[in-house]
Write a structure and sequence with these properties.
heterodimer; A: 75 residues; mainly alpha; 4 helices; 61% helix; B: 283 residues
Chain lengths: 75, 283
């Protein structure tokens, strides 16, 4: 017991195996969340500007200042 | 450590980043947006007073308007689409507070989640970097390739700068350049990672960064420049762009700091558990 403790502390976190997450586990999350995120970014950055998925100007007007200050092209 | 664990932490980091991004945009950026809108409205009023001058100015910009002799009337109906005055569809008071907050929160949260998923994939796969370090690296590369480099080529434009007739073109250029930058960053990262087994860490990073730079510089030189500034005042433009960059840096910075901290804690818990197991096994 008294020998085991220093052996572990000298090993430190580097000796602990680097974790990694199987890509197969990430893939469905990435696909679904990636699509949702891209859609969200599209509505904030571009909709009712250069192209329109939803007609009108309400979204454009509502996020107008964000669009300018976040650096997206706006009118 | 699972994809779900890290995604949730990314969404939290992104939400917090959105709040900070709003504070910076509102405090630092909004005064310059207001100034630009005042200029835009003064400009529209001038054009109404001097229709012939306006017609001359705009003639080169959009030739298809030649048929529309009533330039002023056209311009006014066009402006009504995104008017910023009291008669606007969304009041300025809402635009610079709730509207801006909506924008920064959604962009922050969306980016936070994306960065988290990329970080989840990068954990344990970038050299010998611990999870926190690889997460910080993913965020740093993301900021450079998704925000900073595109900003250098197509910087944010304040209200009153940019014609409604070129919005399609400008948006296209911006997203094409953005895509080139992000794809080049991904490719350069894979290249550097591959080189790690053959050359030193230093050499792989230098070669990877150099390859990325070569691609984006070439793209920036090849792609058209957008300059619709006209006589927009330089000081307002400079402060507006600076504040826009501060906003972007805040969002990315907060995501990086919070997510790196949270992932680091996840890793520390996992390491402690592994150490305890090892200790128990050694008894």
């Amino acid at each position: 017991m008294s020998q085991a403790t220093p052996a572990i502390s000298t090993a430190g976190p580097d000796a602990i195996e680097l974790p990694s997450i199987p890509l197969a586990q990430i893939a469905p999350w990435a696909l679904f969340y990636g699509l949702v995120a891209l859609l969200a970014l599209f509505f904030i950055s571009t909709d009712q500007g250069a192209t329109s998925l939803i007609s009108g100007t309400a979204i454009h007007e509502w996020v107008h200042d964000g669009r300018h200050l976040l650096g997206y092209p706006c009118h | 450590m699972t994809a779900r664990n890290i995604l949730i932490r990314g969404l939290i980091a992104g939400f917090i980043a959105g709040i900070f991004g709003f504070l910076v945009a509102h405090q630092v950026g909004e005064p310059h947006v207001e100034k630009a809108i005042a200029l835009e409205e003064a400009g529209t009023a001038d054009e109404a007073e001097a229709p012939e001058e306006h017609g001359h100015e705009e003639g080169a910009a959009h030739e298809h308007d030649a048929a529309e002799a009533g330039g002023t009337a056209h311009e006014h109906s066009h402006e009504a689409g995104h008017s910023h005055g009291e008669a606007a569809e969304v009041s300025r008071g809402n635009q610079r507070t709730w509207g801006l907050l909506t924008g920064t929160l959604i962009v922050g949260t969306a980016l936070g989640g994306l960065i988290a998923l990329i970080s989840a994939a990068a954990i344990g796969r970038v050299g010998r970097l611990r999870p926190a370090a690889s997460t910080a690296l993913v965020t740093a590369i993301g900021f450079a390739s998704f925000a900073l480099v595109p900003f250098f080529k197509y910087p944010a434009a304040p209200p009153a700068v940019g014609s409604g007739d070129t919005i399609g073109e400008r948006t296209g250029y911006y997203f094409i350049f953005l895509a080139i930058s992000v794809l080049a960053a991904v490719a350069a990262t894979f290249l550097a990672r591959r080189l790690l087994t053959q050359v030193s860490v230093y050499a792989s990073v230098v070669i990877g960064a150099g390859a990325y730079l070569a691609v984006v510089v070439l793209a920036a030189v090849a792609m058209p420049t957008v300059n619709e500034l006209g006589d927009f005042p330089a000081d307002t433009l400079w402060y507006f762009r600076l504040s826009s960059l501060f906003t972007l840096a805040t969002i990315w910075g907060v995501i990086g700091v919070v997510l790196t901290g949270l992932v680091g804690r996840l890793d520390a818990v996992a390491v402690a558990r592994a150490e305890r197991r090892e200790l128990a096994a050694s008894i």
